[in-house]
Amino acid sequence: VRRVVLRHIKGKPLLKYPDDIAGASVMPLVYVVSLGRYDGSLGFNKIVVNGTLPAIVKWFIEWTKVRQMEGRPIGALVWALGDAFTFFLSRNFVKPLA
Q1: What percentage of the chain carries pLDDT values higher than 90?
Q2: What pTM was estimated for this model as a whole?
Q3: Which residues pair with 48 in a beta bridge?
Q4: Cα(84)–Cα(90) distance, rounded to whole angstroms?
């Protein structure tokens, strides 16, 4: 919200969603679902991975998101890089179904 207000004050046009955020007309579909302590399902656009790896990824996502919300640099770094990498992969290699 703060960025929107600052853009408006500076007279800049508002960003279009999702084009100006993701660099594409469709946002990537990303999800991780826990199916138990050591089992899960991870989806990225057309790809689905089940098993232990998604459970580990889910733990990592939760851990880093909490760090980001606490204002810790590691959380901010992981999520800035992760978002950029997700958008890059979605635009260039694993495109969404639409």
Answers
A1: 91
A2: 0.86
A3: 43
A4: 10
